[in-house]
Amino acid sequence: TQLEESLWYQGPDSVDEYIGCFRELVFHLGYVDNANLVVKFNEGLNKSLQTTVVTTDQAPAFDNLEAWIEAVQRVADAREMSKKPVPHRPKPFTTIPRRLPPALPTRTFNYQAQLPIPVLNTSPEPPKIPDGPMPMDVDRTCSKASISNIVCRCCNKTGHIAKFCNTTFNIRSLTVEEKEELLYGLMADLDMTENSGAKPGSEEEIISEQEDFAKCDK
């Protein structure tokens, strides 16, 4: 019938759908001639798919329906794979080789070398004796030698100083004015003794006092 005639063509159906319908139709009609079935199968395929299968290097035999069905499926699967978008492959990372810093020269230590061990001096150093006499010895020798040569400023005698002099009157300790007053007083006493007619013995006492004064003034 016309309905059966239209079932031999693929049309907009996929290859798998066309193969399924063709197998059912062959089963219901009871076709057994493989050569005639191959012709019907190729006539129902789309022209582009039919041409691709026929022009392959290993084309199946014209009396082997199963070989043609397998060949058509391989071509259809290859076309479907080509239509799928190619997955985006990430760009390979470009690794920049890192330059390591130059290695520092290694130092080698001689652990067997023995360092000198410092020796501590526990004994104290003896005191240094200076050459010649000590300062205190010089003072003592000088003081012993010079005591006998000391002259008193008060009595002009040696062996003691004016501080330890037994003389009560020290003319050197007087100022110039005191010495003038003393001189005037002595002269006034002298005039008084002369006017009063003193004895000759008193004159000798005045002379002796003047001599003592002269000695103390030296």
TrEMBL record:
SUPFAM superfamilies: Retrovirus zinc finger-like domains. One of its GO terms (molecular function) is zinc ion binding. Keywords: mRNA processing. The keyword ATP-binding does not apply. One of its GO terms (biological process) is mRNA processing. It comes from the Eukaryota. InterPro entries: Znf_CCHC_sf. Residues 80-99, 195-218 are annotated as: Disordered. This is Unplaced genomic scaffold SPHSTscaffold_102, whole genome shotgun sequence. It comes from Sphaerobolus stellatus (strain SS14).
